[in-house]
Amino acid sequence: MPINYESIFKFAPVGMCVSDQRVIKASNDALGAMFGYGAGELDGQSFQVLYPTQDEYLRTGDRIIPIMNAKGRYSDERIMRRANGELFWCHVTGRALETAQPLGAGIWTFEDVSEQRPVSAALTPREREIAALLVEGKTSKMIARDAGLSPRTVEMHRASLMRKFGAATATELVHKLAGAR
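Given the sequence above, the corresponding structure tokens read:
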């Protein structure tokens, strides 16, 4: 029996899409369902509709480019937004079809990890960005460099996150952000 790649894409158990210049060219049913859209409703849409704010969409794009240039792929966990406005943690992985064009044609997968990591505190867009980078194991100095902020500004956001999550230490904050119990 020949392999039907179109059916594999359509019925994959994780959200998948093919994009070009951060516009979804084709998406599978799981991606639409995860984000609260009907089948094919995301096709032709900018990735921006999946982000909590336009600023987070732009900052993430800026962060992706150097990593894609260096590795040809990108992976992180970040807070995304469903069609109804609900925020949730999502594991995102992508690969450019041509490494010289990091935001050109590419394949992306999305996995809802909100059961393991619920969004449990009202966070600002910058706090969401810093929380995602902390979960990746980055230090405040590394986050400052990656986000174009001063280390002191990162420390202020981290202190705010610690208050919001009731964490006494940075390690406890990361465990709470990662959903560890």
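The first strand starts at residue 15 and ends at 20. Try to locate this feature in the token string yourself.
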